[in-house]
Design brief:
It is a single chain. Helices cover 32% and strands 30% of the residues. The protein has 18 helices and 35 strands. The strands form 10 sheets. Strands 4, 5, 6, 7, 8, 21 and 22 form a 7-stranded antiparallel beta sheet that branches. Strands 10, 11, 12, 13, 14 and 19 form a 6-stranded antiparallel beta sheet that branches. A hairpin with a 4-residue loop joins strand 15 and strand 16. Helix 8 packs across helix 9. The chain starts with a strand and ends in a 7-residue tail after the last strand. The N terminus is likely disordered.
Length: 932
């Protein structure tokens, strides 16, 4: 109970120590208080929760005897008494609100005005009206006709009049619960800034101070009496509202139900996978336990208390459903006011073979999802065309054992024309024709760099030709020419006449001479490697290519190598010899003599898969050594790469999440050892030691990348397939509920009974006041819960109405054996199954009692606790006795689901008896599912 004195709060709490086995026999349902105490009086219009220290002030003034007169004292006492009266009137109103709340207001009620149907605003109006009504009665009895007197003075008061003049504002507090769930903890959402714990009520009153001796009125003033209603009805309502929200839809109880159901699914599913039993993994009889456990668990989270009778019934029903034996009441013992529960242990018991269920669960939980399915997939030789590894090695080999060869001709030309001094005009020359001489004058050593010369010679080639030159000159001589002039004809008309005359003419003549031109070519002719071992190997995981060329040491001659065995690698010698004998030597003279040739000619491509005569013979052992290298990496990965034990079904209950986490973990561990798997320095030191070394090294690099790619691809595709199936049947909230369920299962679960918690005053932003602040206070809150019925049974109709207060349906969506991932079985990663769980239900009655704040006077017991009750009831206004609306029970419905994933190799899991196969899946319904 809270006692407010001059702005401070003193907390009084009765502690009841209850033994584990005796609490059900304890007949002290509540702890009555003998004295309510003195209530905090707020007289200022502007002060909220910090009440003026009125009694201290009065004590001081009364002790001096000189500062306060009798009229002042009479007025002060009246104000104090009226504040107390307002508090009592408010408490009486809140007592009624808690016992008969209106959840569905009647829109014809006067309290409906301005509320838009909001039950909270409706209740505020209703509280104002009841407070006003009670206050009116009190004023009429105590403050009219000079009833209230002190030392010759009276104080009369006018009531507020309309209830709408009264105002109410909330005081918020935050609760420090002893039990906090790891997910979806209460106190969030709209309650994030605190719960309404108290109401501050303000009532305007007009006071008249009168001198009884003279009959004159000394004071006529309007005051606002403001006080805290010292009952925690608002807190009980907020907590019940929060619980009502949490039991409905995609909220906390859905998650808690999912947690229990997941435990049962795992226990039954893995045992069925291992042993073939039980036949069904999800049963409605178990779902009833699961739902009741979740409802009680969330009661504990919200109220720090659960209905004790329901705790006992839950324990007894659990024992009966799992072992077919009822537990005695005295066998249900509490530990520190709480009943510990273990959904996983109950789930093992539900299989009928607890020890084997736990053993198979732990075995499945620690199943090593490694890279073996992927490496087996890549090395599967039964595939058409051979394994993926075989095909890739056969793709790499001809790329490495390949070269482009050409004849390189570098020609230096020196031409010397014959002497033709005085004969300056070129009159033409003969063709050079065949060389006069051809002689080698040097050799070109094999170039150690590629591309470069494999062999070469330097030749001198000479030609001569006849060249005709002319000298042109001019000869002058006398010649007769004709010219025209103007004249007249015989008739005297103008005309043109001609005449001859002697002039000097010229002509060009030449002399000829023949000379001999000479050409000397210095020709460097080489057998030239344009490139060798040009590879372009896609690396799918890296999203790049392994591209290189011209990086084999001495590629055109044999090399002694040692891998798993000692070998002689011919490298590209065969291509060199074929080109030399087929093109270089036969065409050498023609290329040397080709006066217009300066550059590369006779370009040819040779490789391991080129057609004859351009094919290079690759030794069979190159594939064998490459294959052995792959086997070596496979064995190393099998030895080194194992799934982190923390990545298991219990931590990742959604199979798609599990596959993604497995994928990332396996790839991370491969990358951690990737340098060693590839082992490139064994084959490469700036150049590859041989062609076979390049094949093996490229194969190793490709294989490690491909293992990572296939892990990413197959596990991601498997995850996508699972998500596609889940999205087709569930909302995203169901997968979130499964994720949160695993966190709940990892925590210890208890069902508490009346465990105290502390409430802390908060400011308007939800910040707890620091202890040194004037507004700071905290107090104990202990609640008791009473629900009817104590256990929601889907098979038993309740009351005279024969209502099914719990309806269940579970559907095995992927039928009896589940869905293999991937469905091609290449590779087969896992098999998954899923169940959809539909829940509908209601509490016939749900009551919260504030057991350590018993503030309501009771003529028999002393005091009663504040309660808040939800049930179906038609509510009448105690003021007008008219219908104002209905109280309604807490009802709920939601859909959730559970998943299970089992390793490949065996038959999958699912429900196999008792249900009905429909288009939805394998369906089991409780008796009342299709009934109202």
């Amino acid at each position: 109970m809270k006692i407010f004195i001059t702005g401070q709060v003193v907390t009084c709490q009765s502690e009841e120590i209850m033994s584990g086995k005796a609490f059900l026999k304890n007949d002290t349902a509540r702890v009555p208080f003998a004295v309510i105490g003195v209530f905090l009086i707020i007289v200022s219009l502007i002060v909220s929760m910090n009440l003026t220290r009125l009694d201290i002030k009065m004590a001081k003034t009364m002790s001096t005897g000189i500062e306060v007169t009798a009229p002042d004292t009479a007025l002060q006492y009246a104000k104090a008494d009226l504040a107390r009266a307002v508090n009592y009137a408010g408490m009486d109103a809140l007592k009624t609100l808690g016992e008969t709340p209106v959840i569905k207001p009647d829109n014809t009620s006067e309290y409906y005005r301005g509320t838009y149907g909001d039950p909270y605003l409706f209740s505020l109006n209703r509280a104002k009206a009841m407070t006003n009504n009670t206050l009116n009665y009190y004023i009429q009895s105590n403050y009219e006709y000079d009833t209230f007197t002190y030392r010759g003075f009276s104080v009369n008061a006018d009531p507020p009049g309309s209830w709408e003049k009264i105002t109410i504002r909330p005081v918020k507090m935050k609760l420090n619960r002893t039990i906090t769930p790891p997910v979806l903890a209460p106190g969030g959402g709209r309650f994030e800034k605190g719960y309404q714990t108290y109401w501050v009520i303000s009532a305007p009153l007009n006071l008249h101070l009168k001198d009884l001796e003279t009959g004159s009125e000394l004071v006529n003033e309007t005051i606002t009496v403001e006080t805290v209603i010292t009952t925690r009805y608002p807190l009980l309502k907020d907590l019940t509202d929060e619980y009502g929200e949490r039991v409905n839809g995609t909220n906390a109880v859905m998650t808690e139900t999912t947690a229990f159901a997941t435990a049962y699914t795992w226990a039954g599913g893995y045992l069925q996978y291992s042993k073939g039993t039980p036949k069904n993994i999800v049963n409605n009889s178990h779902l009833a336990l699961i739902l009741n456990g979740a409802l009680l668990l969330d009661q504990g989270f919200v109220f720090n208390s659960a209905d004790p009778a329901s705790i006992v019934e839950y324990a007894r029903e659990t024992a009966y459903t799992l072992t077919n034996k009822k537990r005695k009441y005295e066998e249900v013992a509490l530990d520190n006011g709480s009943l510990k529960i273990d959904p996983q242990k109950d789930a093992f018991n539900s299989t009928g073979n607890s020890s084997e269920a736990e053993e198979t669960f732990n075995r499945a939980k620690s199943h090593d999802y490694n890279a073996t399915p992927i490496t087996d997939y890549l090395n599967n030789e039964s595939r058409p065309g051979g394994s993926i590894v075989y095909q890739e090695i056969m793709n790499i080999i001809p790329q490495v054992y390949s070269t482009r060869l050409a004849t390189g001709v570098a020609r230096q030309i020196t031409e010397t024309p014959g002497e033709h001094e005085g004969y300056e005009s070129d009159a033409g020359a003969e063709d050079w024709g065949e060389p006069d001489t051809m002689r080698p004058i040097g050799t070109i050593p094999r170039d150690t760099y590629v591309p470069g010369n494999l062999e070469g010679e330097i030749w001198e080639v000479t030609w001569t030709r006849q060249h005709l030159w002319r000298h042109y000159y001019i000869v002058y001589y006398s010649c007769e020419k004709t010219r025209s002039y103007d004249c007249t004809d015989s008739e005297g008309n103008p005309s043109t006449c001609t005449e001859t005359y002697i002039d000097t003419c010229s002509r060009t003549e030449f002399n000829e001479m023949a000379t001999t031109d000479k050409r000397v070519d210095i020709v460097s002719i080489t057998l030239k490697a344009l490139e060798n071992s040009k590879v372009e190997i896609p690396l799918e995981f890296k999203k790049s290519y392994l591209s290189s060329k011209n990086d084999i040491e001495k590629p055109y001659g044999p090399a002694e190598v040692t891998y798993f065995s000692s070998r002689t690698d011919p490298n590209l010698e065969e291509a060199f010899l074929k080109y030399r004998d087929g093109f270089y030597v036969p065409n050498k003279n023609a290329n040397i003599k080709n006066m217009g040739l300066n550059g590369d000619t006779d370009i040819q491509y040779y490789s391991g898969n080129a057609p004859v005569p351009f094919m290079v013979e690759v030794p069979d052992w190159v594939y064998l050594e490459s294959r052995l290298a792959v086997n070596n990496i496979t064995n190393s990965i099998s030895r080194d790469v194992h799934l982190d034990p923390e990545i298991n079904y219990t931590r990742y209950p959604v199979p798609s999440d599990f596959l993604n986490a497995t994928r990332d973990n396996l790839i991370m561990k491969i990358e951690r050892n990737e340098t060693g798997y590839i082992n490139k320095p064994e084959y490469f030191y700036g150049k590859y030691k041989s062609a076979s070394a390049k094949v093996i090294s490229a194969t190793r690099e490709w294989y490690v990348d491909e293992v990572k790619h296939q892990i990413w691809d197959k596990f991601s595709n498997g995850s996508g397939l699972i998500n596609e199936k889940i999205r087709g049947n569930f909302s995203v909230e169901v997968t979130d509920a499964n994720r949160n369920a695993s966190k709940l299962l990892s925590e210890g679960m208890v069902l508490p009974f009346g465990v105290p918690m502390r409430a802390f005053h908060v400011d308007e932003n939800g910040k707890v006041y620091a202890p040194e602040e004037l507004e700071a206070w905290n107090e104990s809150v202990t609640l008791a819960i009473n629900q009817e019925p104590d256990y929601l049974d889907p098979n038993v109709q309740y009351g005279d109405e024969k209502l099914y207060i719990l309806k269940l349906r579970n559907t095995n969506l992927m039928t009896e054996f589940g869905l293999p991932i991937l469905p091609t079985f290449d590779p087969w990663i896992m098999t998954v199954n899923a169940w959809e769980i539909n829940v509908e239900g209601e509490f016939v009655k749900f009551e919260v009692q504030d057991v350590d704040n018993e503030v309501h006077p009771n003529p028999i017991f002393g005091h009663d606790a504040q309660v808040y009750v939800r049930k179906f009831e038609i509510i009448k206004d105690p003021v007008s006795e008219s219908y104002i609306g209905n109280n309604l029970p807490i009802n709920f419905n939601f859909t959730t689901g559970t998943f299970i994933a089992v390793p490949p190799g065996k038959t999958g899991v699912g429900d196999r008896e008792g249900g009905i196969l429909t288009t939805l899946g394998y369906v089991e319904k409780s008796k009342g599912w299709n009934k109202g």
